Amino acid sequence: MRKTAVVERVFGADIREVFQGYWDIKNWPRALSSVVDACTEYDDDTHQYFSMIALNGDARETISGVRIGTPYQRLEMCQFVSPPGFTLMRGEWRFSPILESGGSGTRVSAQREFALSDPGREAATSLVLEALLARNLAAFDAYLNREAA
Question: Which domains does the chain have, with CATH numbers?
Answer without folding.
Answer: 3-148 (3.30.530.20)
